[in-house]
């Protein structure tokens, strides 16, 4: 609305505009409907024309612009009844003369045309209603009812042309509603007379799902959004969000938020997710995606931050009960108002309406984190292109608001690629898998990507215990990767093997000892033998030497006896 | 037997018309100021009433320019509009009442059989 005001003051000389007060419409029209001129809102039955017109009047009255609501179809009482729930102060506004309601009853069967006439009665009633409350806004819903009451079409057309001129001269901003025609925008070609601003409402049914759309067909003298904008009729009236305008210029702060699981934080650079990033948790059925989401919600609420949990599969009560079983108490946070569940079946509305609803919820609650559980269920609502376009806009929107978004996505067994390729939109991608070995299924967790983080590339085993989520190392060794009881038995086996090896070593060492002793004994024996032999030999040598001496002595003695020549 | 029934029906019809003719008519004519259409409407109406319902009607002529609140109360869209409030049913005649046949039929001062 403030946006509209700025625009208004900006080009006041060009075209004055009147703020409708309808969320979003003022944005795409650049400030509202042309002031002091009639605008046409056309659409088939049930498109929301009357609600639209009523909102225009009520918001006007609240902003100090009294309005006249002239209905040709329903009595003032009926309309009041229909709108009192959306606008609780409608009766007050009527009592304060800020809104005047008039029902113009046209009953063909009662009317007999007996000559020349004009619609001066209508002018007088309208003029009287406008003057009595000083109205600045007028709604005629649906003026085409005149055509069913009177047969002189040429006269009616002339009178309508006069009526719109007269409304302009009165300076009121008028909204005229009209039923869609087959070839023309309205059944009776009202667009010929109300040519300043024409807004078309439709509600096409695609895949059995209705989406309400609004499109500005023309807006003389002003630029305007040209797309079909989906809108929602909720408890508080019309919400229209020009959601295509989100760009890629969000800031990226270097702040982290814990995942709620210590070991997962460690896996992600030690700090957890980036604030304002988008996280995708994929996995096949029963791998614990929701548990990771719930743990994140739990830890966020623990810090006093707000969390919006969008459940597309389970009811909030079911989620609370199931998470209780792994020791996560979510009810507590719901009671404190920190956690808000919003559960809808994806097939309840079209994608655009989902988007509008989510926007609305986020704008109302202003959460720190948003959880989509599971985002893959939205895929069933539209074609992959549509889903991707919707999710892109959604993620851009969340990033612009610095909201951390965690989405879970169901992937086919063993196939981690999600069917819409939404992973490219995500900053962090955690994959959960169920590994089946030896007749049991165990969960593993790994991080496929984490933009801007040096994350672990190791698989971990992921356990759901009574005390929450536990992440343990998996067995990695000669036998490959093992999890669960296989891991446990492998560890036991290794322990036994180790023990055995230790025994073996001990035995071998004893053997060495034994051999050494043996060797020493042998050495001693050989030594003693040698010593004995040595002694014997020495004794023989001595004897020989003695023999030699004796022989020599004998020879000398003999020579002396023979007195032979002296030897040398 | 058949003839008798027809006779009875005729009797009933004439009795009804007689009763209608004896009724008091309450009429209101709404005009938007004094313009040629309003004037013609008043003239045409007076003529018919004088001819057919002399002393048997009550007519109020309202100028919705002067009293716009009556336009809302009387559910007036077109001008001039003549409303027959009594005898029932309520009927509205829009225009300057120049089509006297239609008016007479509508006021049940004349039935289709009479034509």
Average residue pLDDT of chain A? 84
Helix content of chain B: 40-55%
Instruction: List the strand order in the largest sheet of chain B.
Output: 2-1-3-4
Query: Which oligomeric state applies?
Result: heterodimer
Estimate percent helicity of chain A.
25-40%
Shape of chain B: elongated
Number of helix segments of chain B?
A: 4
Q: Which structural class do the helices and strands of chain A define? A: alpha/beta
The count of helical stretches of chain A stands at: 15
Distance between the termini of chain A: 149 Å
Instruction: Tally the beta strands of chain A.
Output: 27
Low-confidence stretches of chain B: none
Radius of gyration of chain B: 16 Å
Strand content of chain B: 15-25%
In terms of DSSP E residues, the strand content of chain A is 15-25%
Low-pLDDT segments, ≥5 res of chain A: 1-12
Strand order of the largest sheet of chain A: 5-4-7-8-3-9-12-13-14
- What is the gyration radius of chain A calculated from CA atoms? 47 Å
Instruction: Describe the sheet with the most strands of chain A.
Output: 9 strands, mixed
Question: Could you provide a short overview of the structure?
Answer:
By secondary structure, chain A is an alpha/beta fold.
